[in-house]
Design a protein that fits this description.
Number of helices: 13
Strand order of the largest sheet: 7-6-5-8-9-11-10
Shape: globular
Oligomer: single chain
Length: 338
């Protein structure tokens, strides 16, 4: 398998507009590849995933007044373009809303995403930024006819959080659980000049991209999960809470937590052990409680249990079909006791 640097150096977008051909070429997978992509109860080879997708039956469905709506590819492109490095996210989101047909799925998604956005950051656009995961995710939205999350009770029900499209485990194994956007990476860069702790860093894709922006990042993970691709070779193999205890609670460092699932009390204990002033959480935005906490959303936890912290930013992240992801930034209120 090629090195991370080789993958980025040779990245020129999708191969023949084909998701699976791109995965095979990018990671130099054999034609008779038998690796099984696993995620909870899911287990399929790449060929099996491709076969499932090619049936055309695994598409996300939007409805209006009880009738299924055909989503135009242009609307999906408008959604994925919001997160491109070449666009101004706020302006792209405004355009996504203003150019939507009244009462269309696009209008509903756009209104929801706009209502949730809270960001004082100014992010420069970039034509040079490379992010294979973003390119592949954008194409997957076309394959699944997904143009963004809905503010619907059934959508945010915890039972639906366990459902997964076959494409997602493939992405998880090669890249991770959430696409790091140009906006998100720049927000993190603007928040710290003393380094980042990437807690539960997984295969290190977020760490790798942050380091490409010349940030000092320490990746910490207990390495219990299996990944097909590792993007870094220096992950600190440790329990996150123990690492913080031995590292002055991470004081002076930004704490980054990407898609930490609700199993156990890990999220709560990490937050209690942290002694720094900036926390960035990337994960579930709605109430399905797949990440963060089993009994409340991350926002609710901070409001009730961490009253000395204030939300400084909340921006939507690229979501997969049936998901609703966001990045949150909390800053410690220096006027309140630790």
């Amino acid at each position: 398998m090629p090195s991370p640097d080789e993958i980025f150096a040779n990245w020129h977008g999708l191969v023949c507009n084909d998701l699976f051909a791109t995965i095979r070429k990018t990671f130099e997978l054999p034609s008779d590849d038998s690796y099984v992509y696993r995620a909870e109860s899911f287990a399929m080879t790449l060929a099996q995933i491709e076969e499932q997708v090619e049936t055309g039956t695994l598409k996300y469905k939007y409805q209006s007044h009880g009738k299924q709506i055909e989503v135009p590819p242009a609307d999906i492109t408008a959604y994925t373009s919001i997160f491109a490095s070449t666009t101004d996210t706020s302006k792209a989101l405004t355009s996504f809303y203003s150019n939507a047909k009244k009462e269309s799925p696009r209008a509903t998604v756009a209104e929801y995403l706009r209502s949730r956005r809270l960001s004082p950051f100014k992010i420069p656009k970039s034509k040079a930024h490379i992010n294979p995961y973003y390119d592949l995710w954008a194409h997957s939205c076309q394959l699944t006819t997904f143009l963004g999350p809905l503010p619907d009770p059934s959508y945010s029900h915890p039972l639906n959080a366990k459902r997964t499209h076959p494409i997602l485990p493939m992405f998880y194994h090669h890249f991770g659980c959430v696409v790091p956007t140009w906006e998100a990476l720049n927000i993190i860069a603007q928040l710290t000049d003393s380094g980042v702790i990437d807690m539960a860093s997984g295969n290190g894709y977020w760490t790798y991209l942050l380091r490409r922006m010349n940030l000092e990042v320490t990746a910490v993970d207990n390495m219990d999960s299996e990944y097909r691709m590792m993007w870094i070779s220096d992950t600190v193999n440790a329990d996150g809470i123990e690492y913080l205890k031995k590292s002055s609670g991470g004081k002076g460092k930004l704490l980054l937590m990407v898609y930490v699932v609700t199993a156990g009390s890990f999220t709560r204990r990490v937050l209690e052990a942290y002694r720094g002033d900036t926390i960035v959480v990337v994960g579930t935005q709605n109430a399905n409680r797949y990440t963060g906490f089993s009994d409340c959303t991350v926002e609710e936890h901070f409001e009730k249990k961490m009253t000395s912290w204030e939300m400084a930013c909340r921006v939507a992240m690229p979501s997969f079909a049936g998901k609703d992801e966001a990045m949150f930034v909390w800053k410690r209120n220096q006027g309140k006791a630790m």
